[in-house]
Each structure stands twice: as structure tokens, then as C-alpha cells.
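U., I forgot to send this yesterday:
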Amino acid sequence: MEKRSYWIGLGLSIFFLFLFLRKIDFIEVWEIFKNVEFIYTLPLMFINLFSLWIRAKRWEYLLNPIKKIRIWELFNATAIGFMANNILPARVGEVVRAIVLGHRAKINKTASFATIVVERLFDGFTILFLLLIVIFFMSFPTTGSSIFTQGTIKSAGLLSFVFYSLVLGVLLLLRFQNRRANQVISFFLKILPEKISKKITRQIDSFVSGLDVLKEFKDILIIFFYSFFLWLMLSFSLYLLFAGFHLKLSLWAAVFLEVVLVFGVTIPSAPGYIGTFHWICAAGLIFLGVGANQAKSFAVVLWLSGFIPVTGLGLLLLWKEGLSLNLLKKPEE
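Result:
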């Protein structure tokens, strides 16, 4: 299964990279690069690194009901996890975060992973909230494309809302109707050998212990605040790069592009979202009225501004933690 997902991701990356490179004018792209003010990539790279700290701070609140952990331990695990997503297949970064934190802070890895699932839910609902704001306040181009129209954007938002709501519903049932949920789970586990069913039950109990943050409304508001600040800050970093490329696009356009990128990188791909990131970024900019070659140049610079600092920092912290990439390649261990 793991090999199949790797080859599917690799195949899709090659396909989208082909779409991205098709009809590109490399001479024009070179001229565009010569006129780019690369000084704007410095605050962009800083924001990408600072976003890891914001994620770590938010994770601290999610983990508080389980164990108080120092922010720098969480920051290290977060940076290493995002580095793993950039260079390892199958997007194992989230599992790697749980492994690194479990290694460092001696907490249950399943409970730690549960908090990451909750974190992703907050990200999802925050992105949908930003999409709703964009739909209300942004002036969309009158001529859409086969990919981006107001109709397809609204449909994607609605389907995502339904998906995240279903996942949230399951998590809330596990947390607040734990006894009934366990009865249902035990009924389906009867077909398995007792040793295996008991092991699965223990893992589920550990997972549920990571959902304790959902009990406190105050904590939920704090986590939502960090999520909203995180994605607004990342959107602003795109707005800064607009200036570096001399693009006359609004902050709303930057928020729209950030939302598009989040949806785009959910497509299976090779490590680092190669191909899928570049194509979806260029497609979003072309929809906003940017020329194809300038949009593709922007996508390359944006990707490098995130990939280089995050991967470099993650590898450095991995070395400091005394871990190896070979361990991270086998997260099931």
C-alpha cells in the first residue's frame, strides 16, 4: 500500500510538472527573474520559519491536557516533521512529528498524533472561513477558467466543509460518547483475534486521550486564534512576494491564492509537493490575470522560499536530536 501511494504521488507530480512546464517560454522567464526584487524573499523565508513557531505554540495548547511540554521541544518536532514532508515520500511528516516528540518528551505517540489530527481540523475550518471571506469581499475576474470559477470555488468549499464536519463529528463522538463508541468499535472487532482487538482498543483509548482539548471552550478559541493568525500571516507573505514581482494584486488576492494552494497540495504528490504546488500556484495566478510565464516564475520562487529554509532547519534540528533519516523513513517502527 505504501509503495502504491508513493508511485501514485510520483506519477501525479510528473503529470502536473508536465502541465506546468508545457508552453513555458524560458527566455521570457529569465527576463522576469532578472527584474524580480529578491529582497522580498527574505521576509518570506522568515515568515515560513516563524510559522513553525506559531504551529508549535498552538500544539502546546493541544497537548496541555496530556502533558506540559516546553515550546522548543515542540518547535523542533514541528520543524523536523515539515522537513520530512519535503524530502520523504508518503507525506509522513505528521507521523514523524509524533515520533520525534515521543522520543524527546516521552509521551504516547498515538495521543500525540490525535492532537495533530485536531490541529489539521482547525486548519481546515480556518481555511474555509478565509475562503468565505474571500467570496464575499474579493472581486473575481469576469472570465474564469476550466479550473477556477466562482462555482467551482464554492463547490470545493462546500465539499471540504462537509468532510471536515464529518471528521469533527466522529472525534466529538469518540471524546464525549466514549463508552457508546467503544461498544460499537468492540462489536466490529469481534471478528479479529482477541490479542489484536485488545491492541487496537488500547490504541483507540490513547488516541481519545489526545482529544481532551476539545473539552474547554477557552482552549478552542485560543487554538482558533493561532490558526487564523497563522494562515493570515502566510497569506501576507504572498502579498509581499507580489511586490517583489511588481504584481498589482490585492491582499484579498493573496488570501485567495493561499486557500488555492492549501487545496492544491492535498493532491497526492512526490515529496515537497513538486509539480502539484507549482501548477496550482500558477493556475491561481493566471486566473487572477497574471501572465502565464510570470505566474510560473512566481510559483518557483515561492516554492524555493518555503522549501529551502524549512528543510535546512529541519535537517539541522534532526542532527541535534541525534536522529537519522533512516528512522524517519520507517515511521511505523
